[in-house]
Amino acid sequence: MSEPSATITGMAGVVIGDDGVARCPWGAGEAMRSYHDTEWGLRVSGEAAYLERLTLEAFQSGLSWSTILNKREAFREVFAGFDADTVAAYDEGDVLRLMDDARIVRNRRKIDATIANARATVGLREEGGLEAFVLGFVPAEQPAPGDTGEMLTVSPESVALSKALKKRGFAHVGPTTMYALMEAVGLVDDHLVGCHRRGCSGAA
To answer: Which InterPro entries does this chain map to (predicted)?
Structure first.
């Protein structure tokens, strides 16, 4: 996450922006504000939406999230709008094409994982599909972090989701990456207490 550019009220707590609105520290800067305010922590629907978030979280590993957001449209283009059937059919020629595309993160392991995950997503339709599968790991209780120091990076549910996806052929879906996915799509509400987006996911 990017560092906040506004004044922090309390140690790693919510940040009051120049618009007078309280936000999580990472969402206070101009670069991340829109994503924080309009997308992070909101439920999404559809197979492509879940495959996209899973893919982007995997590519983000080791990089800043702002880097991935800046390349998001290129990712959508090269991965055919995250249509699982299309990406599942990618071959070595497609991999080489992607490795030559400077608009995305050119990491062979992550590109290979994306193709493997598209194929696994197609296979998961027999169990109700990727969306329903991920939603089966919503935690019974939601966290309520008062500052960033109280935020988790892994949970029993993200560990279980990681294991379940790996069992079904998914790659680059470690527990930390899956926790980030769960935060991004609103299964876990990790907006800080006091943030104006707290509760936006509707997670109980």
So the answer is: Adenine_glyco, DNA-3mA_glycosylase, DNA_glycosylase
